[in-house]
Specification:
This protein is mostly helical and 314 residues long. It is built from 11 helices and 5 strands; from the N terminus they run βββααβααααβααααα. It has a 3-stranded mixed beta sheet. Strands 1-2 form a two-stranded antiparallel sheet. The longest helix has 34 residues. This is Olfactory receptor.
Amino acid sequence: MKLEEVEAEDNVSTVVQFVLLGFSDLPNLQGFLSGLFSIIYMVVLIRNSLIVIITRLDPVLHKPMYFFLAIFSILEICYVSVTLPRMLVSLWTQDRSISLVGCATQMCLFLVLGTAECFLLAVMSYDRYVAICNPLHYPLVMSPKKCHQLAAGACLGGMPVQVGQTWQIFSLHFCHSNQINHFFCDIPPILKLACGDTSVHEMSVYVVVIFVAAVPFILILVSYSKIIGTILRLPTAQGRAKAFSTCSSHLLVVVLFFGSGSITYFRPTSSHSAGTDKLLSLFYTIVTPMFNPVIYSLRNQDVIAALRRILLNT
């Protein structure tokens, strides 16, 4: 594809349109990948939408825990929709071009939604901490007003930081190439295309990741260390089993999401390989959102019982 560029004031050619290479190195698998990712996208939409519908329709699930779960499912739908439909269009049409503004918009939305999920997972762990460690104060602490405030803070809290980071990255000149060896506009492959030394920008990425991912993850670990200590002191084995069952699904989602994402963004850009980056990105952008509803529903008897009640009443 022809490289589109303009002449900057300092006589440096700057890219104005990118090409997302995606999986173009697998020409014989384009049809298979198109079908596979189409099915995955439909599964993500159906499963997460089902969680939202169940928690809305069943009065038994009108609790803070399931309110946050519904918000998380909505974020998952938006999060996947930022990258997967664009990749499907590329596979269907073989048109892999994306404008500079389109690329910046995709990156910004992806980072904002990813940050919102990190913060919301921390809020969900706080909810479990209060429910298990301070059950008598739970109705007061997690009131409907407080839940809405926490959800709004989680969804909007990282927006200024990620908008600023996106602006900083796309204020660079891109003169090495316009070909992004990835299936969406992510930070590591974009920085590889920038002119000059990007070490300052890499450092700013690490600082932001520490703020939006490492800090929530540490808070989650602290919450669960206290939760586990409280669970182990419960007098009955049945009580301990129920508490562990409630928390283990959330903890599994946390490990899957934070683990794959942290490996991607904490590694130096120089050590990134396109194949590894794509594999890790597929995991935390597509695979994890597909399995999260299963993890939450299959390990939660309340959700299963609510689904049965809805199906029997229809």
